[in-house]
């Protein structure tokens, strides 16, 4: 949803920005400059540079003494007078002090210091209020805090003011109402800012764009009446403003030029049809996510023929909604989420029926839709995104979907779709970047058309009834794929050997809960050098863990539990944070050097591992979960075993011996401890009762003696 606002901001502000750029475009090469810069202004700019302590992008590298400042990066001069009129250092990430030397740039009209870290005394330096010729001021993303200064109201020529993403607090100064030439005002995501009375806005008769997202306007109950006095307004963005209602009655509608209205994440909690804006026929973008509006859409929605984007959802709607959009021929993006929309076929019949269908994004997820998907989807040939996930759709995927060859995102996950995994036309994969068909009842084999994709980055067929073997050369089929999830299916046979000198960008591979057999293929770490997550659990895998896996520099999660893997526990990749090889046939001792200093979870439950716990385990200071239960380990815990972060320590059903491990009192975060079915002996220590996070202790079937410490009964979480 946030994309609507971002994209539409560009459209709405385009004309003003292009005009400003044409007049004041920075000219590092000095094209068409006929006057050299004024020496006093050059000195002012050099003084500004002197206050910069970090210039990561070398933005000011061209600012050299003795050079013409009109040729410096970010500086534009008047071709007639040589005076600096434009200083554009946006996104420069400059760090330092905001020098008052800028006050010497008397003819400066355009100042953009956005997304730098130029500090004054907490707030905007007062000298900026004296730069009377400024027409464009952008200080967004700067580290200013405290009360927003009222002296900004002195900049009477300002046409553009953006203070978004700063840390100001308190009331928006009503003096901003003095900026009678202002056309664009951005105060978005200044989350400690509020305004109890926005009547000052009504004085900004030329205002075209207003973004006050996240400014608290709870007390501004008359906000529609104030905005209705601004006939020049083209875009209003008041997302997350704590507005209480949108059902005010307006005697006359003056906002005839309004094309964007974003009111998402306010709590209106009244009938959607009672809102004041439904007769604004020129609206192109309307966003009403999370507004608690309910009831039926009004008839007027079907007459808003200029609509390109509409976003409505997550509103706790209390009844089935009817949506008639047959005549909305300009519609490009439709988001309707978290509603009750009834039958899928009926809903799709109410989408635009126009000679030239412009619909590009159709998002109807989380709508409790029922029924089957109609073949009418074949008419939506301009779609690049189709998301019907988290509904109750049944039946097969209609073959007509194959006509949507421009699709980039296809998400039909979490439905009851059955039938073959056939998308009507194998060419549909040509442009697809994301396919999610998980959690359905789809059967058949992996479609060959996957190999036609150059861009497919994520493919998820998990939790279906897919069968057959993985195609040979599957790595070559998906050259751009970053994530492949085929878990919880009935895929059988060997995992194909990945061979050759090619490498592929796969980052996550999940083949768990299938019917594979044979070993993990050799060379997997070389062919997938970016692999971070590998899960082949519960898949009948046998043989040893490939030895070269230790050389991976990216693998952080390796899950191979419940297979038939044998051999020894190998040395681990340094990047590994979680390893689960439980319920296999691993034997022999643990590696003398685990080699994974950032390991947080180690699960070797139910194997045939023998010998002592090596000293190297003491280096695993980030360990949260350690499960060595049901093995043949013996001896005592290493004296260095002091893991302050460990929460789960499970060592049951081994041959450990000795006194109750006193070093456990240094494991201050322990919550679950299971030492049962070992040969520990001696008395239980009193300090067990001091372990404030302890919730579960299992010590049965050992050789402890003496009394149970009384204070164990007062452990807070027992």
From TrEMBL:
Keywords: Leucine-rich repeat, Membrane, Repeat, Signal, Transmembrane, Transmembrane helix
A Pfam family recorded for this sequence: LRR_8
GO biological process: anatomical structure morphogenesis; plant organ development
Main subcellular location: membrane
GO cellular component: membrane
Highest taxon listed in the record's lineage: Eukaryota
Compartment annotation: Membrane
Membrane topology: Single-pass membrane protein
Signal peptide region: 1-22
Domain Leucine-rich repeat-containing N-terminal plant-type: from-to ranges: 40-78
The name this protein goes by in its record: Leucine-rich repeat-containing N-terminal plant-type domain-containing protein
Protein source organism: Eragrostis curvula
